[in-house]
Design a protein that fits this description.
Blueprint (H helix, E strand, L loop, with lengths): L5 H12 L4 E2 H7 L8 H13 L3 E6 L2 E6 L3 H15 L3 H11 L2 H14 L2
Antiparallel strand pairs: 1-3, 2-3
Helix pairs in contact: 2-3
Length: 118
């Protein structure tokens, strides 16, 4: 799993927040208006995300409509797993991660681990 560029990340956030697949124009209109982006730029970004398997697309009439291939949570979990794989000692990295968690998140993690053992 590769990381996302700035515009790719913005596009994915829009798709993850949408209730259904979106056309290029809908994604373009939802992007922040701080930059003057061309329709073709957004179309290229969506095509690249499709080639990278971040999005699925379906033809609706003459236009492609795009939806995320995985949830935001699954994407983040994949990034975390990939980060753990880059270190030499997965367990040591996990220990450091858990030590940095706020107490309420550590308790939540503990409860999730307990439930997964049932």
């Amino acid at each position: 799993m590769k990381g996302l560029g700035e515009l790719e990340a913005q596009v994915m956030e829009i798709l993850w927040s949408a209730e259904s697949a979106l056309a290029v124009r809908q994604v373009l209109d939802a992007l922040p208006q701080d930059r003057n982006r061309a329709y073709t730029t957004v179309m290229t970004v969506l095509d690249n995300l499709h080639r990278k398997d971040f999005v699925h697309r379906e033809r609706v009439g003459r236009a492609w409509h795009y939806r995320p291939a995985t949830s935001r949570d699954a994407h983040v979990a994949g990034l975390m797993s990939e980060a753990l794989d880059t270190g030499g000692d997965r367990t040591a990295a996990l220990v450091h991660f858990v030590e940095q968690l706020p107490p309420e998140e550590a308790a939540e993690l503990r409860a999730l681990l307990d439930r997964s053992r049932e």
